[in-house]
Amino acid sequence: MPEFIQLIPPQDALARWFEALGLPDLSHEELETIHSLNRVTAEDVIAQEPLPAFHRTNVDGYAVRAADTHGASESLPVYLRIVGEVPMGDAPRFQVSLGEAALIHTGGMLPEGADAVVMLEQTQTSRMDEIEVYKAVGHGENVLFKGEDVEVGQMVVPAGVRLRPEEIGGLLALGITRVKIRPLPRVGIISSGDEVIPPHHVPKPGQVRDINSYTLASLVEKVGGTPQFLGIIPDSPDILEERLAYALRNNDMVLITAGSSASTRDFTASVIARMGKPGVLVHGVNIKPGKPTILAVCDGKPVIGMPGNPVSALVIAHLFVQPMVEFLSGLRLGRPVPSLSARLSVNIASQAGREDYIPVRVIREGNGYAAEPIFYKSNFIFTLASADGLIRIPPDATGISAGEPVEVLFLRN
Amino acid sequence: MPEFIQLIPPQDALARWFEALGLPDLSHEELETIHSLNRVTAEDVIAQEPLPAFHRTNVDGYAVRAADTHGASESLPVYLRIVGEVPMGDAPRFQVSLGEAALIHTGGMLPEGADAVVMLEQTQTSRMDEIEVYKAVGHGENVLFKGEDVEVGQMVVPAGVRLRPEEIGGLLALGITRVKIRPLPRVGIISSGDEVIPPHHVPKPGQVRDINSYTLASLVEKVGGTPQFLGIIPDSPDILEERLAYALRNNDMVLITAGSSASTRDFTASVIARMGKPGVLVHGVNIKPGKPTILAVCDGKPVIGMPGNPVSALVIAHLFVQPMVEFLSGLRLGRPVPSLSARLSVNIASQAGREDYIPVRVIREGNGYAAEPIFYKSNFIFTLASADGLIRIPPDATGISAGEPVEVLFLRN
Known about the structure:
The structure is a homodimer. By secondary structure, the first copy, chain A, is α/β, with parallel strands linked by helices. Chain A has four domains: 10-25 and 184-328, MoaB/Mog-like domain (Molybdenum Cofactor Biosythetic Enzyme, Chain A, 3-Layer(aba) Sandwich), CATH 3.40.980.10; 34-49 and 150-181, Molybdopterin biosynthesis moea protein, domain 2 (Alpha-Beta Complex); 56-144, Molybdopterin biosynthesis moea protein, domain 3 (Molybdopterin biosynthesis moeA protein, domain 3, Beta Complex), CATH 2.170.190.11; 339-410, MoeA, C-terminal, domain IV (Beta-clip), CATH 2.40.340. Helix content of chain A is 18%, strand content 31%. The first copy, chain A, has six helices and 28 strands. In chain A, the strands form eight sheets. In chain A, strands 7-4-6-5-9-8 form a six-stranded mixed beta sheet, with no helix packed on it. In chain A, strands 16-13-17-21-20-18 form a six-stranded mixed beta sheet, sandwiched between helices. In chain A, α3 packs parallel to α6 and α4 (237-250) packs across α5. The model of chain A has no long low-confidence stretch (mean pLDDT 93).
């Protein structure tokens, strides 16, 4: 009977898939910065203005010449003459000269002549136009100098970064109101199987509703792609060939959830192989669930054949589809992936040499967390709906004992 | 000079804010399930159908009566007569009787009479219409019985859960194509300060661009609310009062980024206090950055006065705005928050009794990660744009030493 000739470790399979890609698409589009949340920068962004744009204080107090406060203390205060109050949002119309001070509020512009700010609580008004200063300040104390945060010409956000609220705020502060970003990759999704019907239909005996199209589309959207539904097709090589050719013409990547029987998997691989060079790179990954995964590149476009089993399909999507969509979206400087440390609640066994992913529920336990494996039969659909995340059993382990620490990889919310 | 009368620990401040809320809004809307990603369920969802809907196999093999395979082994196989092949997506038109077997593919419907499936690799075709079975199977082996995943009447998704691709898939599998979800809370955002101008304007000396409105709006959107921009207002109690009254009429919650000077903060608190009962609950939190935070509830609606400093505003938004928006969005069963364990790269000092949040960069180091604190002056805008996350120094610590483990809370992507 047909079986997988060679099962490849997941990390090697992923590497092989990436290596076979051609040159990445370098096109870009321009968007208003305020609408660019989660988009990926297409080029390094360079500051055209300094930040702050003027010498500014970050406290409430008095702008002074630092040298004037030399030696000031509680017992021997320095007396300075008040020459004015700095207006917010405007340049002061006066200077601070020897022996003088000006009232200034957080964010206010330092008057000419001043080079430091004494905090309000370290002063006291002694007369109408005079303060006592109880503490000496150094040059630049409580002041942000012009360009100290960002200098003109400084690269503020590199190419290949997904924009968070933090970056968007920074760009707007510099007056960068438009930004060049990479187009969203289009990801075609084909669902196959004689038994598969749309979710709003009522299944007859032997039929099941298509859910992979929707779970995969949601995931593609979350990780930075535009999903394109290409419908449900029967288990037919001819129809798959026609649909896949159409999908490749109109998308940057194609996902196929294949029927799960061995014969369907086999013709899926043959059809993909005919679609372009170099064709099928991996047929069978040493992983559970998800062994029958097919990875291919057809004339520069990645294609993945995924198990029809919804749990397997989602696990494979997290491990293979997500990094590929992120790469196609232009992401080059990814951030470390947060996880959660927990203690395993029961022993779990695993076959040595294979990488296992086990869905777990995470439960608060004292100061930490317990990870409780969800045991399930293959093809159970509600398994992942009750899981908070996945734990990985490395290929060199034959299992993990209760009480051992595990890292929980979260299913994306 | 006016200072904070009592600084409250952040956890207590948050608890006080939540306690002062009245009864939560219980309204709901109905959406197509495929469009409900990230929305929060308004009621428990109950299965009206079983899953699977029929006895199904999860392997390729032969449907048999388990009793017939009793004692089968490599050396002493059992012989069974093939009576047919189960079609995919349809009910088999035959039964399996004593001494019989039927070819069946993964996902196929078990024929009447059969109660188990022998895997293909544990059989061999001996004659045209006969197989040898090399391994005994028990009742139900390789079979998912009708209703074994989900039973009719079972609660499949509880109220108060944010829907992930996993839940959406599960609902669709059950034919639940519409779902009752909670409306998105509307969150009004007021930015104040005489020196603040819109980001597309060119600042004159002393002016700075408004960025808090946009960073906060992005965050509100990510955590499940609908932001409403209410513009930039000058440092005037009268204008704030009028704008806040308008904001409260049209929103479920209001954020104000107040000017950062002591006088502005004071009138902000007095204006909020006049807007409804119980009014200001917290004025000053024992945290850095973010000390001047004001928490209030005005006639059932939460109001927060946040520091104008963009770094402080975002830290406070992560700690206070996010949980409140999530609560107003109906979220009741939150998932544990993933973080990342790292080793601190340098010593950092902290004032005992105060909770400190320090932005860090996370760097791969051997098998683990190093967290490198980003030291910054107050009012530096690009601090968070270069940070991967925040680390917390608990109030009972006077700092953390280099090499100690820390948990990095990620800034939401």
